[in-house]
Predict the structure.
Amino acid sequence: MRRVTILGTGLIGGSMARGLRAAGGWTLHGVDTAAPARVAAEASGVFHALTMPETLGPEDVIVLAMPTAAAAAVLPTLAPALAAGATVTDVASVKGPLAEALGALPSALRRQVVLGHPIAGSERSGMAASDGALFQGRRVVLTPLGDTAPEALGKVEQIWSALGAEIETLSVEAHDAVLARTSHLPHLLAFALVDALGADPHREAIFRLVAGGFRDFTRIAGSDPTMWSQIFTTNGPALLEALDRFEATLRTFRGAIAAEDGAALFEAIARARATRDAALTESYGEGHDAP
Amino acid sequence: MRRVTILGTGLIGGSMARGLRAAGGWTLHGVDTAAPARVAAEASGVFHALTMPETLGPEDVIVLAMPTAAAAAVLPTLAPALAAGATVTDVASVKGPLAEALGALPSALRRQVVLGHPIAGSERSGMAASDGALFQGRRVVLTPLGDTAPEALGKVEQIWSALGAEIETLSVEAHDAVLARTSHLPHLLAFALVDALGADPHREAIFRLVAGGFRDFTRIAGSDPTMWSQIFTTNGPALLEALDRFEATLRTFRGAIAAEDGAALFEAIARARATRDAALTESYGEGHDAP
């Protein structure tokens, strides 16, 4: 039996545990510092134990299932586990600060750390919202460094394969730049739009008349403020660069609107439609718009 | 039998015809200048006739089921119908240019024109996508002017009630300002975001890794370029004002990200979440997040 110790039994950690339990062949430990999370983890019956294993070895994988800042703080404390031969991985949304935190570990141990990020989630959180199929058919991005040990990478890939995820490899920098564009910037725009409407003089009529598109567009504005304020601060430089690019495009649209240049607007909108279609076909396959 | 003549047998006109046919008690004429639309309207079997009635009177309502600019161009040609006692209404997304076009009609006839806009639609278009239940439980905004005849308003309200819509009344200016914020600006942001990503150096990885939120957020970027380039140009001033307000809020977020001010970001995101929740509860009722 391979052993996986999941530090953080929230939505992602809980979903990994459920999926591995269903796959079979894994001994699962779950550890959480919050008492309610421990109660929920115990009640779920998914974990074999709710403590850190007392001795660790090469058969162990430790998963940091927590946000970037917390994972970066925990990483140096895992030096003894790494020295005993364990592999360490994580699931956080921003990889740059974790790559930096690796600098606090001896280089011989660093090799056993594989940074990763599953592109899956929910507006809901906690073990209660966890789902063993959450990663089925979804991408997981691994960001191995030049000196990452192939055996450690292989062990982490085995976990994600068991969970049904498709594995992609990117550099730390590319991961943070891409996620800034596909996830962090859309969240930022949705939060800013809704926040602006809340302070608008037409607020009352706006609330009565929110259209269908608004609902889709702002669904992500219902996301957790703690998690998202951390993502925005930990991925600040990449997010601001993505925002700069977006604003340059938005200025082009603004200019065409101000000039009443219908032809330029038609061209830009048609191009956006074709781009979206290409992106969703690439990511989800044909028929992506089926319900 | 009350008679409704729908000029434009696309998604909205077709859906109105289907809904009124299902409600019963209406004679329905459908007129479209495009041959394929006429073929589809005939094939649907929904209309009693596909020509303009030869004589019109007080029992007639004419619906301009076409975009703002086309409706504004058609309006003056309906002077004889108005003189015969018919009521005229429309469904276009921007009301300002239509209120202006009313100036081309004698004031005695203007009273029989009731401007309106159902807050319902689809990314799909045409009679083939039409749905008699499209307006059920959705808002329709009527923007009567000071001199609009109460009898004309009553006839138009009767149509929307038969279609199951909830009737709201706003001034022309408030309508255009509110729709700029709840519909036109979200579309603009989605188009600009997707267009920016299409030109991004990370485009290839972005396409492979578009996350769930991106799909929701950019669904409206799949909308029709002809329709949306027209909406952006016809509602330019209100849209640019809404964009100014949005960008002011976005600058506040940008400042907090640049300053790594997690507390300010938490507060703004939590406020946005509460605002979205209040808006959807107001508009859709409790339990709005149920599937």
